[in-house]
Structures are given as C-alpha cells and as structure tokens.
Amino acid sequence: MSSSIPYGRQDIQQADIDAVVDALQSDYLTQGPRIAEFEEQFSAYVGAKYAVAVSNGTAALHLNALALNVKPGDKVITTPITFAASANCVRYCGGEVVFADIDPKTYLLDVQKVRLLLEASPKGTYAGIIPVDFAGRAVNLEEYRQLADEYDLWIIEDSCHSPGGYFVDSNGEKQHCGNGNFADLAIFSFHPVKHIACGEGGMITTNNEELYHKLLALRTHGIVKDESLYTNSKDFASAEKNSQEYPGWYMEMQELGYNYRITDFQAALGSSQLQRADQGIQRRIEIASVYNDAFENKKYIKGQSGVVPGHAYHLYVIEVDDRLGLYNYLRENGIYAQIHYIPCHLMPYYRGLGWKEGDVPFAERYYSRCISLPMFPSLTDEEQHRVLDKVNEYYG
After folding, report:
1. Does domain 5-222+255-274 correspond to CATH entry 3.50.50.60?
2. Which of 224, 200, 217, 220 is closest to 261 using CA atoms?
3. How far apart are the C-alpha atoms of 283 and 280, rounded to whole Å?
4. Rounded CA separation 301/163 (Å)
5. What are the extents of the domains in the chain?
C-alpha cells in the first residue's frame, strides 16, 4: 500500500538542520541573540513594529489577555470554529467567553453577528474581540476596528493559520495578518503543521510600544532589567547604604509573569523556515487551485468558490454529506484528513458554563459537514491526485 498522507506536515530541509546545529553549538541555547533576530525578521515579514517570540501559540494568547488586563467578569467575543486556546486564554484570566456565529460562506467570525451582540447590551458590557484567521483566510480587521472603536473594545487577532495572508482594505491596500494596523495584538503559532515550524513556538506582534514592553516582562516571570523602570532604591539593590548606582546583577520582578520563553535553537529553525515562507504559500495556493478545479460542479462538494486572494491556505476545507463515511474511507486508504473544528461551545467544559446545541447554528451546521483535506507544501502532485481519486471514488 502507498505511504500515508497526513492533513499537514512540516517541511524540514538541510538549511533548517544546519541552522539548528549552529545554534546548538553556540554559547546560547536560550535567552540568546537568535531570539531577537527571529523577532526582528518576523516583524518585518508581517509589517509590524514589534514582535515577541514565545513558547507556543497558547502562551501568546495568554500573554495577550494578561497584557490587556482581562480580569474576572470581563466578556470577550470569539468564534466557536477555532482551536480551544482562542477562547481558553480568556478563561485563564477569569473572563467570560461569548461565542458569536460564523459567516457560512467564509467560516470566519461574522462581524454582523458580533454587532448584534454588542447592540443588545449596554456599552461597557464587553471588553474585547478575538477574531480568527481560520484556515488561512484573513479577517477584515478594518471592519472590526471600526466596531471596536465604537464600543471601546480591544482586538486580539488570532493569526495562527495565516502568516503571509492578507485582506484588502477600503482603500484597496493589502493589510497583512498581524501587521498591527487594526488589531491591538496578533498571535502566530509555529507548531509543525503550521506555515513556519519550530517544533513548538509562537509569536506576538503589535504596534503598541507599551504593550510590547509589558509582554517582554510577562514572558519572563514579570521580571525587568531596565534601570529606568526600577522601583526599589539603589542602596537596597546593592545592599550598601547610600549606593549611587544599581549593580550589574540587579533585576526586579514587578508583576506576576510566566516562563513562556522560546529557545535559541527553535528561533534559529524559525528564522530558517521564514526564508521559505512565501514559497510555501505559493505552493499552498497551487494545491488549492488543483482541488478547486477538480471539485468544480461536483454536487457532493459544498463550500468552495475558487482561490481567495490573500488566503494563506493553512487548511483546505470542504463540506460534504456523509462526512463520517468519507473520513473513515480516506483513513482506510491511508489518507489522514482531519476535522477543524469541533465547535468550542459544545466542548464539555463550555457546555458546563451554559452553552448548548442551537446557540450558534451556522457553526454547528458547518461542523456537521466539514473535513480538511491534505494541505502542505511538500504534498506531491501524485499524492494530491490520490486524495482526489479517493474522494471521487467514495461518492462514485
């Protein structure tokens, strides 16, 4: 039997291996220069002023919620069609998650549904919004910024699926995911199936200098090493009466933070992967085009309408009847399609908070029919045609 085909796979080349080996042979395995280099390169790639590399995408979300001072009782709106971390970061801080429905054509959080939620409550009821660039399709953050400004809300853009993706604003300009022009903060993931693989890892981008410095401290236990920010006296710091300077060893933990650091060898891998990021997106678009052409006018395929400009194609999702049957048939033939996602609000944890079936009907209908087909840059033409043959064979 032919080798198995996963829904996603990292692409590790010799340049990546060499970069990691160089880092391992250097003086720093962590807290060294490669982290800052990766941050600088990534911020330039997405067009943001600042970037903070962290241990994973979930850590990035948690740090964002902390930096924005999410506290018990704060209500935050997000989509149910996402990985649970997009919602969980609010709960980590004691906030309340409110799920709004998706646009059934784009699968993205529906800005009009969000507006209806906001209009139904007094201003000040909600603290923020977490839109998700699901599957690689960019949310129109210009629309969300206008809405957020009207209701005094912050925005966290979950761009884990969409480094290199973009939407076109009202002036006809491309607005790349994570560029900080509309969202207060944005996050990315470097899990192996993502566009850029570090094993594990994440990145936060922003144009807000105050939030940037807050994130740097929160990433490392809330500790700062900046004399201009110290609050203890110089003589206390040096343990010498009437000392006139802070000693070189001195630091202050000024708030409760976490160890959410990335390592230097992960950052080295990320920098190497970043050099091929645009090439990888182009290959993903080519794969999406082949799928689109093959499924055109197939009555058993729903929800596809040509390649979308700015879509980064982390996933290629179709909707079908008898999704379970197709899923099992593909697996029997060594094709490991995946489902993205079980709606967050129907997970037992969120059901326990009062959410139930029928609360977000478009998301629930989408879930009943969605399946993600293999999509990654090293997917060969032969492998893709095998996937297509098996899908068509199943529906006969």
Report:
1. no
2. 220
3. 5
4. 27
5. 5-222+255-274, 223-253, 277-395
Query: Residues 120, 152: contact at Cβ < 8 Å?
Result: no
Could you tell me the CATH superfamily of domain 277-395? Aspartate Aminotransferase, domain 1 (3.90.1150.10)
- 202/196 Cα distance (integer angstroms): 10
Q: Encoding tokens for residue 153?
A: 């809300």
Residue 77 bridge partners (DSSP): 98, 129
Residue 309 is encoded by which pair of tokens?
């400009």
d(CA 155, CA 32): 31
Instruction: Yes or no: say if 142 and 148 are a contact pair by the CB < 8 Å rule.
Output: no
Task: Please provide residue 97's backbone torsions phi and psi, each rounded to the nearest 5 degrees.
Answer: -90, 130
pTM of the model: 0.97
Residue 82 to residue 9: CA distance in whole angstroms: 19
Per-block mean pLDDT, blocks of 10 residues, the chain (396 long):
89 98 97 97 98 98 98 98 98 98 97 98 98 98 98 98 98 98 98 97 98 97 96 95 94 97 98 98 97 93 83 97 97 98 98 98 98 98 98 94
**Which residue in 178, 105, 184, 90 sits closest to 138, CA to CA?**
178
Identify whether 291 is preceded by a cis peptide bond (ω within 30 of 0): no
